[in-house]
Amino acid sequence: MTSAIPRSPGAVSGAGQAVAPKKREAFFDNAKYLAIVLVAVAHSWEPIMDGSRATKALYMVVYTFHMPAFIVISGYFSRSFAAKPHQMRRLVTGVAVPYIVFETAYSLLKWVGEKPHELSISLQDPWFLTWFLIALFVWRLTTPLWQAIRHPLPVALVVAALASFCPSIGNDLDLQRVLQFLPYFVLGLCLKPEHFQLVRRREVRLLSVPMFLFALAFSYWIAPSFASGWLFHNASAQQLDHAWWTGPLMELGLFCCSLLMTACFLAWVPGRSMWFTVLGAGTICGYLLHGFVIKTAGFAGVFDDHPWLSAPAGEAVVSVTAAVVVTALCTPPVRRAFRWATEPEMAWAFRGSK
């Protein structure tokens, strides 16, 4: 996403992260675009995958790495964030303000679409996909802390494990997700360019094929009994009707699986400029806007009124449609049209702004 994941470490871009004033790296733009397509497609499967073991298996595999990949890359490009005034300004305009705008917009959509029609706008309780913005805001604010301690990743894993069996954390700011996804962001802070070069080696690319096939087969095997809630990282073990001690075990296990699948995904991301590379700069629009399309379709009864969409052919149509829609939403014209909401300047709000 544009505001969430900048071009490269150094100066400032997007949501206050540190990036150097140099040419965008095609690899990361390609990764962002491909990941956002998977996000949209996976969201489109949710209303139609009940009763389809194969679709749930695909859903589970995609969910193990699409958001972890985004978060790791976000952390990687936040390494130089030191809470300097210009960085704080971009953090506010590139993350906090879009969160307020889109959380309000999604709340209005929910008010119109759900019955009974009850208007509830609470910035403390993110709905649907806006959680990522508030999480990114918190993660980036704490970046100086993670860079100051000796062993940040183990500490972050302990924090995530503790959160996984603490139902008292509640829903405010979706803190369960903030804490349980934290290790991926901290891992990104610890990575160096050579680590991304390592996963893009030919042997890793070849090994990723059987790994993906094994993941699909394993997911197909456990799909009927597996609770998808574990993949969302938004609830404690007790809230998922499991013993408290399963929380830390699942947290560590899913972290290992997600890193492995993320590496397999990145291994196949092209490093050269492609026709879709330019779309990587507009993934914030694709991410924030595609939800309106999916939720509106759901509220309008599209999925309920057309049961054929749950058949294999229908699922293929829904998947292709979601991919096309999110691709269109990532294009430069859409990005320019929504810049007022996703990347506002707001010079009037800051001291020393020209």
From TrEMBL:
Transmembrane stretches, start-end = 57-78, 90-108, 128-146, 204-223, 243-268, 275-293, 313-331
Q: Does the UniProt entry include the keyword Membrane?
A: yes
- Molecular-function annotations in GO: acyltransferase activity
Under Pfam families, the record lists:
Acyl_transf_3
Q: Where is the Acyltransferase domain?
A: 26-329
Its keywords, alphabetically, are:
Acyltransferase, Membrane, Transferase, Transmembrane, Transmembrane helix
What InterPro entries is this protein classified in? Answer: Acyl_transf_3_dom (IPR002656), Nod_factor_acetyltransferase (IPR052734)
Q: What is the name listed in the Swiss-Prot or TrEMBL entry for this protein?
A: Acyltransferase family protein
Q: Which organism is it from?
A: Streptomyces tremellae
Q: What is the lineage of its organism?
A: Bacteria, Bacillati, Actinomycetota, Actinomycetes, Kitasatosporales
